[in-house]
C-alpha cells in the first residue's frame, strides 16, 4: 500500500482529515499513536490557524460528539497546481473555439502523459505497474493509495485532485484519466467514486484482462 512521506504531526492530522473525513479526538489519537491531550493541543493550534473546523454531532443518548474536519483554507493546503488559472484558460478556449477544442486539449494531455510514463511501466507485472503509477500520481499531488483485493482485483485511491476545479467544470478530465490508467496498466479500469461528483476520493477498480 502506498503511503504519504514522513511529516509533522499537524500535517498528519490534516492528511487524515483529508482522506478520512471528519474525525473525533479519540479516532485521531488511535491513528497517530499519541494521547488525546496531545491531539487536542494540535487541533487547537490548527483551529487558531483556521485550517480545521469543528462540528457538534448530537446523539439520541449521551453527550454530543465533536468531529473535526478541514476548513476551506485547510483543504487549500494540499496541491492544486494553479487550478484557478487553468479553469480561466479553459473557459477562454471554450469561448473562442468551442467545447471540442477543450476536449482535444485534454486528449492531447492524456497522450503526452502516456508517452512520458509508459517507459517507467513497460515490462512490469500488473501489481508493479500499479505501484509505480501510484508513486507517479502521488508525486504529482494526488495523494494515492492502493490495495490488493481477495478476488485478485485492485483498488486505487486518489484523495486529492490538483486540477479539481477544472475536473468539476470539464468531466473530460476524469474520462481521460481513466483511459490513461487503462493504457498504462493494460487492464480493465472502472471508476467507482469521483471527487468531481462529490465523493471523498477518486476510486478505481482494476481488473487484469482475461486471457
UniProtKB/TrEMBL annotation:
Q: Which UniProt keywords apply?
A: DNA-binding
The UniProt record lists the keyword Nucleotide-binding: no
Record-annotated HTH arsR-type domain positions: 8-53
Recorded hits in SUPFAM superfamilies, A to Z, give:
Winged helix' DNA-binding domain (SSF46785)
Q: Which residues form the signal peptide?
A: none
Pfam families named among the record's database cross-references: HTH_5
Q: What is this protein called?
A: Helix-turn-helix transcriptional regulator
Q: Origin organism of this chain? A: Paenibacillus enshidis
